[in-house]
Amino acid sequence: MLDHFRAFWTKVISPVAHLLIRLGVSPDVVTLVGTVGVSAGALVFYPQGELLIGTVVITAFVFSDLLDGYMARTTGRSSTFGAFLDSTLDRIGDASIFAGLALYFAWEGDSRLYLVLSLVCLVMGAVTSYARARAESLGFTANVGIAERADRLVTILVMTGLGAIFDLPVLMHIALWALAIASTVTVVQRVWFVRRQALSAAADGGPAADGGPAAG
Fold first, then answer.
1. Residue 16: its pLDDT value, please?
2. Residue tagged active-site, from 68, 86, 90, 94
3. At what angle do helices 80-107 and 112-137 cross, to 10 degrees?
4. What is the pLDDT of residue 206?
5. 86 carries an active-site annotation
6. How deeply is 2 buried, as exposed, middle or buried, from its count of CB atoms within 10 A (0-12, 13-18, 19+)?
7. Which of 57, 105, 147, 174 could form a disulfide with 114, with the two C-beta atoms 3.0–4.6 Å apart?
8. pLDDT on residue 212
9. Cα–Cα distance between 64 and 119 in angstroms, integer?
């Protein structure tokens, strides 16, 4: 479903992408500006209780994730560094959203429970992405799980926005519970999936299933 949305919005943002290309703007600049916008929207508005404004600002800048990729493919400027930068800044943007919600619950929302759930979502979301990257660096795959990045992002933004519009904070609460559980399950799924591959490789005379250098 999310792939269909991605295809639709790619068509929508293509005129903007071509305009930026004609102006000489690089995809990396779009990536950086998008991350700054997402982080500012989350860390400035959410802690003040401005959940709707924050969600609108974040959503607007989230589209840079489609924009920079489209620009890179169109101009043939895709690069290893560009992919690295995009993935790294994505982690910052994602963490900022849940950090902003954590600050909201610490200051305006006055709820230790949902402060903790926001932090669980932040940590487990980061571990989900790290598990896949680390697995791939070791020659395995870990593209499994019930809550990948796009799912987490769409869920929290939609439910936070709707909760603010209709004055139903319970929608955001439900989203945080669901994402905390789903993200944790996803990490377990990826660890189990990679372990199966490692055991299979070890049985075939490949790398050992246990041990190995620690990740940085």
1. 92
2. 90
3. 170
4. 60
5. no
6. exposed
7. 105
8. 54
9. 25
